[in-house]
C-alpha cells in the first residue's frame, strides 16, 4: 500500500496513529518491539510516509489499548486508505475536520478561494462566533470550543518554527459586503483582514463582482501543496467535505485557481478596495 502515502485518508490515519501512541504511554520503539517491527516502520506510519495494512493497524491498536468507537474509526481509515478521493461527512471534530487540520499542519502553500464568506483561517473571534453560532443545535460551550479551534488553526499555520506556510487568499467582493454578525463585526473583520495581509507568507487579493464568468463562481475550494507529496483539493459544503487527490482532478482546480487569480485585482489594489469598503460601512452607522 506504499503508493497510497500522501492521500487525504492516509494523512488522517497517520494523525490518528500519532495521537493514539501519544496517549498510550508507549514510545514508538516500545510499540515496534511488541509488533516485531522496526522503529523506522512505526515512525513512517505516524508521518504518513508509509501506509500500514489494516491487520497491522489492528495489532497496534490492541497494544495501545484503543477500543470502542475510536478503534472502529481508525480501522475504517486503514481499510479505505487506498481511496484517493474522499467524501467526509459529519459534524464537530470529525474525520472531515481532521483531514483539514492535517493538511494545514503539513502544507507549504495554500490557495484559498472564498467567494461568499471570509476564510476561516483569518476570521476574528466575533465573526467566527457569528458563523458557528448560527447553528442552533450547538451549546454555548460547543460554539466556544469550535471558535477557539478555528482561531488556533491560524496560529498553527504561521507559528511553525519561523517557517509559515505561504497563504494565497482570494476573497470575492460579496464576502466583503455580507454583514455577518452585523456592521460592527464586519468592519472589525475587514480591518483584521488588512492587518493579516501584511504578515509574512500572506498574499491577499480581491475578486470584484463583474460581468464575466470564471470558475470561481461555482463555489469555494482550497488547494494544499506539500513539499514531498502530491497536492490535495478540499471542497467544503454545509455538512460534508470532499478531498480530491487524483492528478486530473487537482490539475483542473489548479487551472481554475489561475483563472480566478487573473480576475483578481493586485494586492495593493485589494488593500485599498477593502479600506474603501470599511469607509462605506462606517458611513452607514
Automatic annotation (TrEMBL):
<dbReference type="InterPro" id="IPR001387">
    <property type="entry name" value="Cro/C1-type_HTH"/>
</dbReference>
<feature type="domain" description="HTH cro/C1-type">
    <location>
        <begin position="17"/>
        <end position="71"/>
    </location>
</feature>
<dbReference type="Pfam" id="PF13560">
    <property type="entry name" value="HTH_31"/>
</dbReference>
<protein>
    <submittedName>
        <fullName>Transcriptional regulator with XRE-family HTH domain</fullName>
    </submittedName>
</protein>
<dbReference type="InterPro" id="IPR010982">
    <property type="entry name" value="Lambda_DNA-bd_dom_sf"/>
</dbReference>
<dbReference type="Pfam" id="PF19054">
    <property type="entry name" value="DUF5753"/>
</dbReference>
<dbReference type="GO" id="GO:0003677">
    <property type="term" value="F:DNA binding"/>
</dbReference>
<dbReference type="InterPro" id="IPR043917">
    <property type="entry name" value="DUF5753"/>
</dbReference>
